């Protein structure tokens, strides 16, 4: 277990202004409201909820989400699953393909550990080779252990997954040939659609997804193989999958923190109003004639989905953030303004993309009572930071 440095432990109970910068901060009140809204949403639509832990990479947060009703957690990497399992998370789904025999032996070992604890491990496949290698690893490492296996179909992401239809049927049949493997259903996730900006674009994209899923599900069922579950979806489109009557489980994770990129989506009125809950606290370290500089550069936040936006808790942001390199951010007055922040003042940044931003930090600082006058309540360890394999 990663130890929490003494200087962070001493922050607990202290005002927000005691947090040294740059630091990754969770507004716990906003996060908990997001959790409550998601729990209410999934109950209303009678779907299971398996959030993606690659967002927060924290066993503490994963267990909090389970207490709120999550049925388990998705991860993308085996090492993420191992890190969360080591801290008491028992129901995990590796929603990704693993082919390397050495890794598959670790998969089998983890399945054995979780089964012994009353939990369960699942994994996705998209090739007959993957099925055969997984079955071999399970047989060699733990012949008395079983694992749930989802067939991934490519429904528009253009990444992993077999085409909908016959190819998925062939894999479901291949899974059924091995006693250690249980065909668990279909993995159908359209990642690109999560960031289509208009409600209409997202609706149209997921309507095509539903057609592909139904055709594949019915083909497999017609062959005599039950399809227990269709799983997938994300924060951008969850209203569409939840309302479809086809998906039984949602994998949305980003709703918990809501980054700047998701904020660019036009919100569907039927979707919960999730709030920003993850921020980089930065300090203004230099003020020049036409710009100011803060101490949060690319080492503190990911930029694959764009630069962070400036958050001003008491109203519209007075400044915009520009690229300043690894260690710095350049602050300019917002359009129509001419005021610069003062030297030493605090700037709150909303990361462009939460997941890789969290992966840059060892700990998250949880604040209760708001970003301006709140107190540090807890220090949360990012257990799966750097879990890339």
Strand share of the residues?
15-25%
Quantity of strands, as a count: 17
Low-confidence stretches: none
The CATH class assignment of the largest domain is Alpha Beta
Number of domains: 2
CATH superfamily of the largest domain: Alanine racemase
The CATH architecture name of the largest domain reads: Alpha-Beta Barrel
Order of helices and strands: HEHEHEHEHEHEHEHEHEHEEEEEEHEE
Count of individual helical segments: 11
Structural class: alpha/beta
Assign an overall shape: globular
Helix % is 25-40%
Under CATH, the topology of the largest domain can be stated as TIM Barrel
Radius of gyration equals: 22 Å
First-last Cα distance: 18 Å
What would you say this structure looks like, in words?
The chain has 389 residues and is of the alpha/beta class. The protein folds into 2 domains: 127 residues, Lyase, Ornithine Decarboxylase, Chain A, domain 1; 230 residues, TIM Barrel (Alpha-Beta Barrel), CATH 3.20.20. 30% of the residues lie in helices and 21% in strands. It contains 11 helices and 17 strands. Strands 1, 10, 11, 12, 13, 14, 15, 16 and 17 form a 9-stranded mixed sheet that branches. Strands 2-9-8-7-6-5-4-3 form an 8-stranded parallel sheet. 47% of the residues are buried.
């Amino acid at each position: 277990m990663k130890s929490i440095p003494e200087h962070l432990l001493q922050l607990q109970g202290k005002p927000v202004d005691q947090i040294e910068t740059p630091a990754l901060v969770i507004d716990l009140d906003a996060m908990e409201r997001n959790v409550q809204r998601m729990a209410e949403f999934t109950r209303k639509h009678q779907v299971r909820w398996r959030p993606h832990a690659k967002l927060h990479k924290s066993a503490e947060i994963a267990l909090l989400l389970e207490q709120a009703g999550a049925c388990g957690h998705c991860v993308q990497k085996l090492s993420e699953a191992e890190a969360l399992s080591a801290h008491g998370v028992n129901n995990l789904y590796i929603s990704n393909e693993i082919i390397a025999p050495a890794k598959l032996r670790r998969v089998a070992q983890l399945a054995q550990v979780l089964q012994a604890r009353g939990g369960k491990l699942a994994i996705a496949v998209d090739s007959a080779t993957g099925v055969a290698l997984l079955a071999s690893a399970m047989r060699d490492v733990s012949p008395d252990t079983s694992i749930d296996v989802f067939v991934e179909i490519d429904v528009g992401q253009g990444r992993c997954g077999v085409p909908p239809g016959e190819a998925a049927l062939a894999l479901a049949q291949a899974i059924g040939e091995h006693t250690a493997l249980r065909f668990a259903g279909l993995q159908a996730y359209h990642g690109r659609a999560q960031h289509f900006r208009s409600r209409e674009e997202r609706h149209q994209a997921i309507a095509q997804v539903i057609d592909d899923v139904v055709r594949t599900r019915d083909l497999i069922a017609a062959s005599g193989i039950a399809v227990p579950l269709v799983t997938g979806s994300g924060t951008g489109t969850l209203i569409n999958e939840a309302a479809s009557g086809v998906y039984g489980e949602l994998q949305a994770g980003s709703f918990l923190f809501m980054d700047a990129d998701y904020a660019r989506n036009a919100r569907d009125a039927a979707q919960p109003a999730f709030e920003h809950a993850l921020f980089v606290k930065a300090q203004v370290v230099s003020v020049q004639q036409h710009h100011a500089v803060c101490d949060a550069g690319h080492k503190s936040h990911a930029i694959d989905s764009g630069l962070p936006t400036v958050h001003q808790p008491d109203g519209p942001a007075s400044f915009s953030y520009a690229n300043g390199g690894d260690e710095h951010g350049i602050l300019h007055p917002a359009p129509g303004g001419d005021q610069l922040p003062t030297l030493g003042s605090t700037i709150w940044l909303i990361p462009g993309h939460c997941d890789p931003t969290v992966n840059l930090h060892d700990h998250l600082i949880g604040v209760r009572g708001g970003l301006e006058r709140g107190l540090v309540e807890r220090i949360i360890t990012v257990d799966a930071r750097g879990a890339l394999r």
